[in-house]
Amino acid sequence: MANFTAADIKALREATGAGMMDVKKALDEADGDRAKATEILRVKGLKGVTKREGRSASNGLVAARVQDGVGTLVEVNCETDFVAKGEKFGALADQVLDLAVAHQVADADALLAVQDGDKTVKDLLDEANASIGEKIEVRRVARLEGEHVTSYLHKTSPDLPAQIGVLVATTGGDEQIARDVAMHIAAFAPSVLSRDEIDPEVVENERRIAEATAKEEGKPEAALPKIVEGRVNGYFKENVLLEQPFAKEAKKTVKKVLDEAGATATGFARFKVGS
Question: pTM (2 decimals)?
């Protein structure tokens, strides 16, 4: 019989995060040698990671930090909401955010390559995959600089971590208007700041669709230009932050509200877990 105690089992569980039965089997296989048992658990865990690669990780959380005029936003994914609200997953996400901030990364691939001691962020995720038993990945990272950068995190369910995260950069105005705009972005999901950022080919496609739809509806030929422009402007209102009706005062656009507050929005980022 292998020479190990309940204290050995407890210590190995705490060190690896593996389940009790897996720890006992590893210690049996290693004849009580804790270092060898750790290696066995790691090999088995990483084998499990390979099996999980094709699985969907559509739950998780978003985390944000603003430091010295720079905002960082990360989305860390897992497979189930049960894991998403666990302490271990939350601690991992905080560690990932810390490294993203410290190394000033702006995309997921760069973050995965960041070194933390003798391990990369990818190594940390693989170890978490092994110990937690789910596919875990960093899906997106955003980095935003500006005169003032404000973050906002929104919970879509009270028992889950934040599922929507926003960064918004502004000049002028005050903290309240910046937060109001960040909350608006969370709720209304604009895709760009201004219409200049939309690909002209996308606009022309919207125009063609609007014209074809109006003709299909039997609208008078003379009225088509006005109808088409109205529908294209509707597309802008749906997608362009500055042209959206403001969440707290729908008769005004976001740009109008910012102008009245003496503020200008210079950029934003918005993540929603799984979308």
Answer: 0.78
